[in-house]
Design goal:
The protein is mostly helical. The chain contains eleven helices and two strands; from the N terminus they run αββαααααααααα.
Length: 300
Amino acid sequence: MMKLFVLSLTALTLLLFVGCEPNEFKEGVVMAGGQYVPAATLNKGKQIYSEYCMACHGVNGDGNGVASKGLQPPPRNFKLGIIKFGNVVSGELTHDDAVYKSFKHGLNGSAMLPWDLKQGQMVAVWQYIKTFAPDTWIGKDKKLGEKLDRQTFKDPFTMARKEQAIELGKKVYHVEANCQSCHRGYVTLAEYDAMSKELTGDGIDELDEDFYQLKIQGSDHDYQVIPPDYTWHELRSVRTGDKEIEDIYLRLLAGVGGTGMPAWKDTLEDHKIWALAYYVNHLRSFKDSPKRKNFVSRFK
């Protein structure tokens, strides 16, 4: 009887030991930008990740969590080490505060909701997420990109010159940036012809057959991307309210990491990027508006 009791106690002890997952990290690591992250922070981040993130993003951070099935867009695969909505030119390593913004505000039109996390929790979970892509994030040799700092943004138009900005942005969108090559066009043939003659000296005889259609794009995220129709779709990283123009400007300036959306920094003049932001936001004003039907019907 005593022998059976001892065996049962041993089995219970072993079960409890196995069921209590030990801390994974024994030592701290140096992340990109020379940031040292203690082991305690990484282990705290792992606990938070398990509670808040794992259901969608998966145990291994590959985006294949139990709740991921059928989600569009799919949950981010952190093992790829790609950040879509950073505050650096796309392709460079972003600064942490850009990711904290996504935690706090979520990503519109997706299953990524705003999370009520304290600053220390955001820091811990993001540092842990970096460990899914060690070749990207871990090492003193890894450099962060040049930060596109909101504190230095200077809107040359402001709301006082909103209409002027929208009109210029419409020309930039369709002629200089040729945004309809991925998104869709929002002008008639006559308007496009007039804008093209004004900016390039060349007229347009006819529109491409897919001028008013969205064009599916490849990406580095293991799935295809449908560029937004600005009169209909949500813009993932854009907040509502007085930050809309600034958020759109940042995304145009930086691009979207791992997709065909380029960074317009150093390609378009800065005031034209601001004008493009005003025009995109103008198009967004048609969403959920009775005016949208009349607006888009002009382009059929």
